[in-house]
Fold:
Amino acid sequence: MVDPNSGRVLTYYTELVVTGPDGPERARLEVNAPARWCGVTFYQSFMDELAPALLFIGERGAIASYVERRSAYENEPLVLEALELRLTPIEGGGPSDFFTVEPAGGPFPCPGTPWSVAVRGYFPNHRLGPEPGTDLDTNPEPNPAVRLDLYLEGERVVERALVYRRHPDFLDPKLAAAGIRIELGSARWTRHPEPALPEELRAYRLYPGDPAEGLAGTWFRLPDGEPALLEADPPHGLKLTLPSAELILPAPAAPEGENILDLGSGYAVGYLNGEPERVTGLEAKRDPGLPLFWAGAALLVLGGTLVFITPWKRLWLRLEERTVELKTRRLYPPIPPCALIISTSAS
Structure:
């Protein structure tokens, strides 16, 4: 469970579904809140993240082509869809409403005004380049900015003016000369569609494990039905064990065809690293002797309590002539001593 405001993890829990003779039963596990079912106790022992491996088996060219398209998708998963702008005359007149422009094409008219705008570049992390008029998108701090052309009644009057979102007081001299101020509003992004897996490729989402943590690999079946085992191969890479051979995949597949190994019969194999996924470790116990254990623990505690609560005593006898004196004293807690005198006489 994550706090939506701060992103801080509030608690870790696991929702468990156990299917028995009476149908499925749901239970929620937490670290100190186990669930019991038919004499079996389920504990949540740990929470972790495990990175799967995306294993591809098929033609070498198909694997390389898919890896290239997927790499491009992961490097730029988002694409700019639209920007919001607002125009305000410097002398006289109120601001226009925010209107939407696309990041390419145009010019796009500003409703109710003779002005129109065309976007020539958008930079989420803008900073000026070393050469005049050049822009870089490498600012370590977010600094949205846009380069745009301004048109008046279809004629371009300003070229490549710079507008910042976080610095509304900045006014490009080109816009000042045209007597107009432009504000940059929000940006709308969309996600690139994830590349579809070609039909000639067989994909497996496997967890090779971590030998340092005692986790074994994953068994699966090849397209021809033969079993195979995928394991981690420290310090990096994967080991693929087949019925007829053992292959070492040293690194993820590259678009140029690197790290793609031949399996024979026209097949090749390669892998990519998947996004880490949260996993939980469960521990199931059934201990019929548990009541005896707790009974023994209770007796041990009771015996220790009696030893320290019951006071110790000391007893001694002293003979003086024909009189026997018996004394006793508690050692803990201390109390005034007491004495018992026993007198005897001869008959």
